[in-house]
Amino acid sequence: MEFFERFAIPHPSPAIYASMVAIGLVSIGILVGLTYFKKWGYLWREWLTTVDHKKIGIMYLFSAILMLFRGGADAIMMRAQLSTPDAKLLDAQHYNEIFTTHGVVMIIFMAMPFIFAFMNLVVPLQIGARDVAFPRLNALSFWLFFAGAMLFNISFVIGGSPDAGWTSYFPLAGNDFSESVGTNYYMIAIQISGIGSLMTGINMMTTILKMRAPGMTLMKMPMFTWSAFIANIIIVFAFPVLTVALLMGTTDRLFGTNFFTTTNGGMDMLWANFFWIWGHPEVYILILPAFGLYSEIISTFSGRNLYGYKSMVASMVLISLLSFLVWTHHFFTMGQGALTNSIFSITTMAIAVPTGVKIFNWLFTLWKGKIRFTVPMLYSVGFIPLFTIGGVTGVMLAMSAADYQYHNTMFLVAHFHNTIIPGVVFAMLAGLTYYWPKFFGFMLNERIGKWGFWLLTVGFVLAFFPMYITGLDGQARRMYTYSEATGFGPLNLVAFFGAALMAIAFLTIVYNIYYSFKNSPRNIGSDPWDARSLEWATHTPVPEYNFARVPQVASSEAFWDMKKKGHQLFKGDIEKIHMPNNSGVPFIMGMIFFIAGFSFIFALWIPAVISLIGIFVCMALRSFEKDHGRYISVEEIEETESKLGGAK
């Protein structure tokens, strides 16, 4: 391949050219706006160099929303292509690229930053901490995620998107079958983002273990903190596997090694095993924090403490252990033998048991509760039956003999989305609405929010339930077209209308943010939901130091006990507070990683080497830097507390 051909636009279609023009105009508009309103200094001081966990959480949040629409555009194009037989909207190659990028964007660059957003925003507040354990590492984690996301998302206009599926199985992902640089984007962008995720896992584990408020034992932690803790343990064990696999795949493509080739001693199934040893725990990295959010919301809006606290914790621990013992169910049809299939069939069905325990705990929490059907509660209640259906179809897929019927059909696509959308997306939208007033100072409009919920729920059912039927009738996944004789057309058209309804729902949610920003009152207080856990015990907006006095915790619902039982949560005098300094190094390192990644993708060795040197220089400078942070004086704290409504 000639040098400049590697940079060629893969599909010189009007849509691609329009996207390039849109990217260029938006970029120019941002630069002009920042210059005209003289916001460069503000942007650098307050956001690009921040190490404040709350601001980092907000950046994760808006990045996730942006990626939601990026991945959603791919989904709409796929459903439009399949809405009628023999459609010509997309050719086979373009369709392959779109379903590949849809999966990667939604899992790696949408769902992961969404959960990291809530971990950053909520966990330090729930445990009574002033920040995370390693604030600068936290900033670096975000900028590595952002660099990986932006690198992956320029692929469709520069060089071509990956086209081997979101699992990128070899030998399909090898140079013989994927000649363009698309799979290089996959290997390196996910690698960069994954390093940031691993850093977050280490950081959050350390924060939860070492920075809890006095009196907060492990069994007094709020349920979301428990779910975040267990999810980050899974991250620390699972992500190194992905890191090594991506490195091996990169060397296969760039340097001609033979880890995953079908010749010269390679083993293509080795990639599949590595991928799913990470990939199936990844599902629980996403779902466990979602379970934690549901637990907080259901408890709050039922007016009751969470039923079965210890069993909820035990079930999450059991899920985390079993999540590493089910990966081979992805290979039931690949000839691995009856004994192996039987073992992994049993472990796969077993993981439904602790999940079922959680469902019953939520139902018992609702039982005899004074339920308030707010928008977060609607998402939480709607999740239960929809997710249960997804779980039941998962048990069907867990039966290895029956999987020969289900595997590689739309039935599997329906099952996966039937767990991930109610299980993760509903939770993220519930959490977004629930925590929005704490971090932005105003409530999202309930009426518009409920419209968004119902549009999304109805659209989801219409989009994915028909796929169970077409899948059982034999419609294969990853096929870009089908003939009229198959009879799949009517149900696929229904699925397209459902997807369109979901798109309208997401636009409604964005409109709700705009409408509420313009019209919602700001005098909402610090506890607008009458909540139960510690994050609601501080001011709105949350001050830089979170709490003027470190809270003294006596139960898993310390704030509720303070309000209803008169427990004294804040004791002693206000003292000066140590806080970390901002730093531009994480942002600079993220940009260097972006340049290094781009250089490796296109085999530009000189800038690649220079970038690697730059990364090590940044690390060395940090090693020799003497930055002991700063103190916020008692006078500054008292002034801030007075402005926000009185010292706590």
Order of helices and strands: HHHHHHHHHHHHHHHHHEHHEH
CATH superfamily: Cytochrome c oxidase-like, subunit I domain
How many helical stretches? 20
Portion of residues in helices?
Answer: 55-70%
The strands making up the biggest β-sheet line up spatially as 1-2
CATH level-3 fold name: Cytochrome C Oxidase, Chain A
Alpha-beta classification: mainly alpha
Total domains: 1
Major sheet size, sense and barrel closure: 2 strands, antiparallel
Mean pLDDT: 93
Per CATH, the architecture is: Up-down Bundle
- The beta-strand count equals 2
N/C terminus separation: 66 Å
Q: Which regions contain 5 or more consecutive residues with pLDDT less than 50?
A: none
The coarse silhouette is: globular
Strand-residue fraction? under 5%
Describe this structure in words.
The protein is mainly alpha-helical. It has a single domain, classed as Up-down Bundle (Cytochrome C Oxidase, Chain A). The chain has 20 helices and 2 strands. It has helices spanning 14-36, 40-48, 53-82, 92-126, 135-153, 182-210, 223-255, 268-302, 309-322, 338-350, 352-366, 375-398, 400-406, 410-440, 446-472, 489-519, 558-565, 585-601, 605-624, 634-644; strands at residues 577-579, 630-632. It is globular, with a radius of gyration of 25 Å.
